[in-house]
Amino acid sequence: MRLQPYFFLTVAVAVCGIACSNDPGTTRQQAANATEQLKRESREAAGNIKKGAAVAETQLGAAAQGVKEGLNDKSSSLVDLNTANKAQLMGLPGINEKRADAIIADRPYQRPRDVVSKGAITADEFQKISDHVTVGSK
């Protein structure tokens, strides 16, 4: 551990604050005691910082895993053709406002493909969204 210049100034101030005497031996011993105490406290502080960093690393890893799981959870990102609002439908590939209105107008759907058989969108359009949609009850 590299000691910074302010460390020595802190030690000197602490020693003189404790008791500056006319006896160099006493002053030297007080400086040694104060320095040893600062070393112990610095080691303890470094240990606490390491523990805190380990906890933060664990929490960061858990958060990253949660994000990954959330992104991989396909079912939670599926758009329900029976309940989605216009903006959600327009977020699907190739679905514009007119197609979104048609999907809403032809509800309910028993199966996702019913959106084609009811004429709301074409088979080609359905192909683009088929991996992104589901149907629930309306």
Q: Given the structure, what is the number of helices?
A: 7
Number of domains: 2
Class per helix and strand makeup: mainly alpha
Strand order of the largest sheet: 1-2
Mean pLDDT: 85
The tally of strands reads 2
Uncertain segments: none
Order of helices and strands: HHHEHHHHE
Outline the biggest β-sheet: 2 strands, parallel
Helical proportion, percent range:
55-70%
Strand content: under 5%
Shape assignment:
rod-shaped
Offer a quick outline of the entry:
The chain has helices at residues 5-19, 24-72, 74-77, 86-90, 97-105, 114-117, 123-129; strands at 79-80, 133-134.
Can you give a write-up of this model?
The model has no long low-confidence stretch (mean pLDDT 85). This protein is mainly α and 138 residues long. The chain is rod-shaped and about 100 Å long. The chain contains seven helices and two strands. Helices cover 67% and strands 3% of the residues. The protein has two domains: 68 residues, no CATH class; 59 residues, DNA polymerase, domain 1, CATH 1.10.150.320. Strands 1-2 form a two-stranded parallel sheet.
